[in-house]
Amino acid sequence: xxxxxxxxxxxxxxxxxxxxxxxxxxxxxxxxxxxxxxxxxxxxxxxxxxxxxxxxxxxxxxxxxxxxxxxxxxxxxxxxxxxxxxxxxxxxxxxxxxxxxxxxxxxxxxxxxxxxxxxxxxxxxxxxxxxxxxxxxxxxxxxxxxxxxxxxxxxxxxxxxxxxxxxxxxxxxxxxxxxxxxxxxxxxxxxxxxxxxxxxxxxxxxxxxxxxxxxxxxxxxxxxxxxxxxxxxxxxxxxxxxxxxxxxxxxxxxxxxxxxxxxxxxxxxxxxxxxxxxxxxxxxxxxxxxxxxxxxxxxxxxxxxxxxxxxxxxxxxxxxxxxxxxxxxxxxxxxxxxxxxxxxxxxxxxxxxxxxxxxxxxxxxxxxxxxxxxxxxxxxxxxxxxxxxxxxxxxxxxxxxxxxxxxxxxxxxxxxxxxxxxx
Length: 423
Hints:
Elements: H1 8-13, H2 15-30, E1 32-33, H3 43-49, E2 60-61, E3 64-65, H4 73-88, E4 92-94, H5 100-111, E5 117-121, H6 137-140, E6 143-147, H7 158-168, E7 172-175, H8 186-196, E8 199-203, H9 208-212, E9 225-229, E10 240-244, H10 249-260, H11 266-279, H12 282-304, E11 308-309, E12 318-322, H13 330-339, E13 342-343, E14 345-347, E15 361-365, H14 367-371, H15 379-395, H16 398-413
Parallel strand pairs: 1-13, 5-6, 5-7, 7-8, 8-9
Antiparallel strand pairs: 2-3, 4-10, 9-10, 11-12, 12-15, 14-15
Helix pairs in contact: 3-11, 4-11, 5-10, 7-8, 12-15, 13-15, 15-16
Pathway: One-carbon metabolism; tetrahydrofolate interconversion; Amino-acid biosynthesis; glycine biosynthesis; glycine from L-serine: step 1/1
EC number: 2.1.2.1
Subunit structure: Homodimer.
C-alpha cells in the first residue's frame, strides 16, 4: 500500500517532517484503529484545517473584535455556532475553546471560585481528569468529590450519587467521562443537581457524534452546560465547544475570552463548521447508529470468547475490557496488539488493583472502523484477532502477531480510510 505525494510544498521545505507525515498516513491506512477517542475526518474537514484562515487573528467575538479585517471571520464563526445550535438543539454555542480540557476549565471559571466543591466521576472509574481529579488543576484549585460505579454491575448507583451530592453540595456536578460503556442518564443527574443546587455539566466529548446522530439521548433538555470536543465520534478537527442555556451564555463567553484564551483558531472554526454540516446529513445518522451496532456486535463476540467486559457490555461506541481473567496485563496486551496492527489503549478498570501506567484493562471502540465502512459482519473477525493477539501477548508469540498484522492489512486495503488518498 502506498500514498501519493500529497504534500509537495512540505516535502520540499522540510523532508524530515514530510517523511513522518507520510509514515503516519500509511500507518493510519493499514491498521485497525480502535482507540475510541480517535477517528478519521473527511477530506473536507482536513482541507479546512489547512486554509489561509490560519493567518488571521480574531480576539473577541463576531461584531466585537479587537482586530480589524474580520469581514470573513465573523460570518464563519456565526455559521459554526448556528450549526452547533441546530445539530445539538441548544440555545447558545461557543465554538472558540481550543480543546476539551480548556473548555472544561472555562466552566469552572464561569461558575465557581477556587476552593469550591465540585463533583465528578473518579478517573479510575471512567471519569476525566478535569472533573476534579487530584492531579489536575481542577483538583488542586477546587475541592474535588468523586463518585464511581458499583462493584457488582459496573454501573453508576444514582442513590449513592444523590447521597454524596446532598452531603457535599457541589457548585458543579459533572456527568460523562472517558471510559463509560453505558448510556448516560442525563435526566437522573439533572434531578440530583436540582436537589443539591449544583450547575449540571454534561461532558459529551466521547459521545457527541452519537448524540448528534440520535444514537444516544441528548443532554440538551437537562444540562445547564454541555461541554464537548469536536473530534472523536463527531469526526471534526481537534477543537471543542461549550453549549448552554441562554441564561448562561454571557458567563460562558466571558470565561472563554478573555478569561482563559486569546484569539480563536479560525482554521479550526472552519473545520468545526464543516464537521457540523456533515453531522446534519442523514448519512451521519446512519453512521452514528452503525457505530453502536458494531460496538454491541463486537462486545457479544468478545463475551463469547471469554472476555470480561466492564458492565457486561456496551450501549455506545466504547468497550472496556478487564484482562485479569486472561492473566495478561493491559499494557502488555495493548503493545502486542499494536504490533499486530490493532491500535488500542491500555486503561484502568473500576477498582483496579494495578497501577494506572500498568493497568488491568484495555479500552477499545468502533468509531474509526465504522468510518471505514466495516459493519457488524466484520466484528467476529475483529474479536478473533483481539483474542489471538491477547493470547500471543501472554505467550510471547511474535509470529502469531505478525500473522494477524498481515490479515489486518489485507482487510484495511479493502476499506480505504476517509481523508487518505491511498493508491
